[in-house]
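haha ok so turns out i had the wrong file open the whole time. this is the CORRECT one, sorry everyone. sequence first:
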Amino acid sequence: MLSSRRNTCITILAALDGVIQLGRDHFILLIWRIPDGSYYSQVFDFVEIDSSLYKTSNAFIVKNWSKKTSAHFRFTAKFPKVITHDKRLNDVEKELELFFSSMIYLKDNILALLIQLTPSMSIVEGMNGLRDIIPELDKRFRYAVEVRDSSYFI
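then structure:
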């Protein structure tokens, strides 16, 4: 997944089965601006749900996203920061269960769930945390990992 940030606009390209998909983040803001959300899903292929980083959305909201978009439309959603930043991938079984129980309503429309590691998580801590969390991941979803600490790029 590649992204290009300019002010508040994010363009995202993702190769999925050889197809380039185009979308952006901040789906919630777009739904507020476009009353039924359907126009956005006719123009773009997918969106990143950024709000999931800050709070796990309840089932009603997630079901509503599914209703407001076309069948071909896809989502990515960030893991809640309580999992990735606050607890740093440790002892997160309860939080994972809550997140998956919310995202299950978009299961057929999820490109990937994004594990965005905190910028202060070194490669050693990150790889250990990922090794521990992988068995707990719901196999009905695909996953992407975003690393940000400089130790990954040496």
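Residues 93 and 135 are 11 Å apart (CA to CA).
again sry for the mixup
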